[in-house]
Structure formats: structure tokens, C-alpha cells
């Protein structure tokens, strides 16, 4: 099984950026450990601060992997293009967020990509990623969007 984990803008600064919201641990170190917990899964890890690069990556992996875990960062809230890219490929995607976006500013409650995803997992800190990986492996996608 192959799973792609795609991270958008500013997620390279998790651990440093707004620790009260995103925590003190770097995303890279968390994902390195996560990967070791699933020896039977081949992971593709990708992060970019650029919308087009994220779209290129979705197109590159999206017909090959068994699932995409995507935290599009702020692009979640306004990128129709990333939503379209996720719709265009065959791999099922899960939208994830570290923070509870529904409990934050009103503009973070809007997702332009959720309709292209099989579910949303948000607000569990970095564990949101593990939950999304488990959902893809088990095929039990989150019921609510
Ligand atoms: C985020 C939430 C977004 O609103 C924000 O722009 C981010 C991170 C999260 O993981 O909680 O960059 O996607």
C-alpha cells in the first residue's frame, strides 16, 4: 500500500510557529516517526509553500497511491485549484488539520477542498495525521465533513 502525505504552506514551521496552537514538535520529526509505525506502507512525504507545486504533486501521485492525506494549510480555505486537482485524480483523499479549524476564525471554517475529500480530521494535534492514515488503511473514512 502507498500513501501520500501532502503539506501546504507554513507547515514546515510547525514546532516553531504559534506553539500554543500547533504544538512544540516539528511536523518532520512527527512524520518520520509515523512512517516507522507502518512498515508495510510506502509513504511519499511532500511539503511546499507554493500552490502550483502542491497541485503538481497531487497530479504526480494521485493516480498511483492508495490514498492522500492532505493538510493544505491556509490554501484549504480558498484554493479551488487544489480542490479541483484532488477531484481530478483517482486516489481518495482525507483533509487534515492540526488545529480545530471549526473552533477558530470564521474564515477557517470554510474549506474549498472538503468536497474533493472522503472526510476531514481536524483538531487532534499531530495525531490528526495518524488518524487519517488509519482511515485510509482500514477504508473507514470519517463520516462527517
Ligand atoms: C491548519 C489550519 C489552517 O487554517 C492554517 O492556515 C494552517 C494550519 C492546521 O493544520 O491546523 O496553516 O491547516
Work out the number of β strands. 5
User: How is the biggest beta sheet arranged?
Assistant: 5 strands, parallel
Radius of gyration: 14 Å
For the terminal residues, how far apart are their CA atoms? 25 Å
**SSE order, as H and E?**
EHHEHEHEEH
Give the names of the bound compounds: 1,3,4-trihydroxy-5-OXO-cyclohexanecarboxylic acid
Order of strands across the main sheet: 2-1-3-4-5
- Shape verdict: globular
Mean pLDDT over the residues: 97
Strand content: 15-25%
Low-confidence stretches: none
The oligomerization state is single chain
Structural class: alpha/beta
Q: Give the helix proportion (percent range).
A: 25-40%
Continuous helix count: 5
What does this structure look like?
The chain is of the alpha/beta class and 145 residues long. 32% of the residues lie in helices and 17% in strands. The chain is built from five helices and five strands. The protein has helices at residues 19-22, 27-36, 51-61, 80-88, 127-138; strands at residues 2-7, 42-47, 67-71, 93-97, 120-122. Strands 2-1-3-4-5 form a five-stranded parallel β-sheet, sandwiched between helices. β3 (67-71), α4 (80-88) and β4 (93-97) form a beta-alpha-beta unit. The mean pLDDT is 97. Bound molecules: 1,3,4-trihydroxy-5-OXO-cyclohexanecarboxylic acid (DQA). 1,3,4-trihydroxy-5-OXO-cyclohexanecarboxylic acid is lined by residues 10, 71, 73-74, 76, 97-99, 101, 108.
